[in-house]
Each structure stands twice: as structure tokens, then as C-alpha cells.
Amino acid sequence: MKKPFSDKLQNITPSMTLAITAKTRELRNKGIKIISFGAGEPDFLVHDEVKKAAIEGIEKNYSKYTEVEGLLALREAICNHCKINNGLVYTPDEIIVSNGAKHALFTALQTFLSDGDEVIIPSPYWVSYSEMAKLAGGNIKIIDTKKENHFLLQPEELKKAITSKSKVIMLNNPSNPTGAVYPKELLKQIADICLEEGIYILSDEIYDRFVYDGVQHVSTASLSDDIKDITVTINGLSKTYAMPGWRVGYAAANKEIIKAMSAIQGHCVSHTSSISQYAAVRALTCEQGFVKEMLDEYTRRREYMIRFLDEIKPISYSKPDGAFYVFADVSAYYNKTCGSKKITDSLSFSQVLLEDFHVAVIPGISFGNDNFVRFSYAASMQDIKEGLESFKIFVESIKE
User: Nearest 5°: CA angle at 179, between 45 and 309?
Assistant: First the structure.
């Protein structure tokens, strides 16, 4: 008789998005056009200079192992990037390059957590946070943030959630799925509480270059030297440089933390692809005008999407200040029907929208809030216009 798999698998919640993803694939395989607002990746192409660097790396046979922490040239480029864009001063031995930001987050959790330690996660949260924490042996403590606070964690909410077992807090700034961006004063209040309570901060800042309407992104580690010492800044090239498949992320922290993370990473994956690393150096050091072009285009798409959704009552949302998502409250349509199909929650809402109107969104239950669905505007303007028109027809067809 075969022995069972790890007990850890029993604690993992299957992704609520898998059914949507599988159905999308099934319909497309049948030749049906699906407009997807589900993408968590840029629809832009990788800059030509970055492609050239990868080709050069291949032609020059840069295919050997690199340092576990990543190429020195890349870590130096990351240090310069952090200083220019985030006001953070790091040295190369305070940087570790990873296989995407997700990998950096998981390695940091493995570094900090012993079995039973608590991980505080404000909700709505990115879908993998809770599952990574559980896989690393942690117990999750979810704090439900409020729409009236723009889904930003409040100091009093954090204080109430902290126990003697609290070890780590995971902050996503700007946020996926809400687009919320923490003002400096609020972020400082939260960080000061963590400093007082001895709680490490995992600051996921993967969307830091995509903020709107003059809003300023503030890196947690920039608030003070003491806060920097308890913070791991997580970032990567997937969003800013439209390189999700290249798998280049990184963590920046004090030398002791990076050394510990390196010990774990060295036994798990060694290092990020050498060719991806060479390309990443070019991405970070070449002329950056294309990043501004991406931001300008996201701004245009964002304005169109929120103006369109404003006209559909009773849908509401908290206006996103960053990232490339709109988190919309669709709960007014629950316990109603569309044709013969009953809509009871965010998953059934998303399923009917996909199956009957061929538009894909991500159900809010995936992010810890079942009243909402997430729209991504990392899609062409043509698809955004066409998809929103179909979405409007869908909601207008929902009856008591």
C-alpha cells in the first residue's frame, strides 16, 4: 500500500481561479473568443535591448552556474535601481536574486518561520500569500480590511491581531488585487508597531513603478534604519519590465537575513537562470523610457475602465492608486439569476460571465473577499472596450 503524501497538502486551499482558468482554456480550444480581465501579467513585449542581451549571453556561452545570490553585476544593478527609484541604499551582499518575486517571498518565509509561528496577512491579499505561509509551517492570521479605508490596514487593526506568536507580516504595496497604496504616515505607523513587537515585514513592492494621479509609492525600508533592519523588500522584473516568464525576482535585506535566505535557496534551486540574469542586467541599466510608456498606457486603460464601471450601478470599487487592477463589488447581484443559472457568490458570478458572455474575471474569494471580482487592465484597449460592453450586457441580464 502506498503511503500518503505530506500532511502539508491537506492544509493547502485549491486555487479558486483554477476552474475559471480551465474553463477559459476549454472555450478557447473550441474556437470561442474569450476576453480576459484575469491576467496578472503585462501584455507588453520585452524591450528589444533586453532580448539582445539574452541572445548575447547565449552566444557567449554564459551558461554556467552563477553565485547562489545572483550575478554580482545584477546585484549591483539592483542596488542602483533601489537607490534611484526607492530611496534605499543596499550593498550587493544585501541582495539575493530569485526565480521571481514569489520565490523570494517563499524563501523569506522559510527563513523566518518555525512551525506554529503566526503570519499576519491583511485581506484582500494576493492568492499565494496564505498558502506559502502554510507551506512554510506558519499559521495565518487574516485581518479583513475595510473598503471605506481603501483596503489599507489600520494601526488599531494590526495591534488587535498581534499575539505572542506573531512573527511576520506580509504587506503588498501597491496591492494586488485592490490597487491600494499606503501613504507614508500610515505605513510608518504600521512599521513602528512591527518594530515594537519584533515582527518581520515582508514588503512586496512588485508594482512600485505603477502608481497614478500623483500618488507616491513609499518603500517600507526607507522609513528608518531600524525599520529597514526588520524589513525584506521584495521586487522583480515581471511587471515593470514585462518579463514574467524570465523568472527574475529579488529580495533586499540586511546581510544576516540574506545569508540565511541564500543557505535555503542554495539547496533548493541554486540560482536564477544565468541567461535571464544577464538579460536582467540590461533591463535595469538601459534607457528606461519604455517603463514610462507602459505607465502612460496603463493610465489610459485605467481611466477608461473606471469611467465605464462608474456607469454600472450598483457596482462600486475603491479607486486603485497603483498596480493594474480594479477590485469591484458585485455582491448586489448575488442570490439572483442570469437565465436559468443562479448567482450566489463571486465564483458563480465569474463562471456565468465566462460561460455565457465569454469574459473572464477573477473571483474575489481567491483574494479573501467574496463580495468582489478583480478586473485587470493589463489588456489591450480594444479588448477592454469589448469586454466591458459584454460585462454590461451580463449584469443587465441578471434578474431577481
Answer: 90
